Amino acid sequence: MAMVFDQNDLSYLSMENGAEYYNVLKSNEKIETFSRLTVELNYLYRTVTDKDVMHVKLLALLDRLDLSTTEINKYTFFDFEKPYTRNLVATDNKNYTLLLLCWTPGKESKIHNHPCDGCYIKALRGCIRETLYSVHESSQEILKNKTRFYCEGQVSYMTDDIGLHKIGNPNHDMGSVSMHLYTPPFSSCKVWATDGVGSLNKFEIGAMGFFSVMGHRSPFLEGRPGVHSRLMLEIASYFKKKNEAKENELQFQ
User: Is Oxidoreductase one of the keywords UniProt gives this record (predicted)?
Assistant: First the structure.
């Protein structure tokens, strides 16, 4: 069963074993599992409040990420009838959502924005193509600026202050996988048609769904309005009940 650490279980930072984990979290060792990455993300969001400092630390954190094929495969689900799939790895329902996007050969997303502080992208398998767009001030037309390519291990950052973009797989023979860290989570975004880019006001609202959740296929959670919010509540409720059960168990020991 592919799972990550309990998002709300911070017992690893207790007085008893906190020193050991503190040393691990402060080290420059490679991060080889999503569980370890989740632990470090939770630690950062508990201890860092300045956005600029957080941005630098998140970039450094992703630079240390060195996942094996086996680890990546735990959360890798392709559907070659879709341009890509969105696979939830972890979230704390407040500060971040961590996803794996699996790209069909030669396919790409629509142009979209990011209603959050930022989106961090790391290419995990294959090559990722990013096309950036700006908005003409007077005509409000969306204009193509440039195209960038990211090989395995390279990191990109995107925010609405930079502009709009679309992501895709330039390889027509092999699928690719990218990891996306959204801070904070969001349930929908604006999307524009990829062909014949029109005005800024000609957008649709894209709902965020999941093709899989924490390593398990989720066929009823793909882009349906309101499903994302309900799922986040269910996940939060699950961890709350789990922590309450732990507390009750400790009281009777």
Answer: yes
The answer as to whether 211 is a domain residue is: yes
**Strands, E assignment, the chain:** 84-91, 97-103, 111-112, 118-125, 128-135, 142-150, 155-158, 164-168, 176-183, 188-192, 204-207, 212-213, 216-217
Is 136 annotated as contributing to ligand binding? no
In the chain, DSSP finds a helix count (H) and a strand count (E) of 5, 13
What is the predicted pLDDT for the residue at 11? Answer: 36
Given a cut of 70, whether residue 7 has pLDDT beyond it is no
- Paired residues of 85 in beta bridges: 102
Kindly report the pTM of this predicted structure: 0.77
Are residues 162 and 131 located together in one domain of the fold? yes
Known binder of ligand: residue 228? no
From residue 224, alpha-carbon distances to 3, 179, 230 in Å are 24, 22, 11
Residues 100 and 205 in one domain: yes
Does residue 24 have a pLDDT over 50?
A: no
For tokens 């390279």, the residue is 154
Tell how far CA 138 is from the center of its chain.
34
Residue 216 assigned as binding residue: no
Specify whether 104 is located in the same domain as 202. yes
**Number of structural domains found in the chain:** 2
Which domain covers residue 27, as residue numbers? 10-66
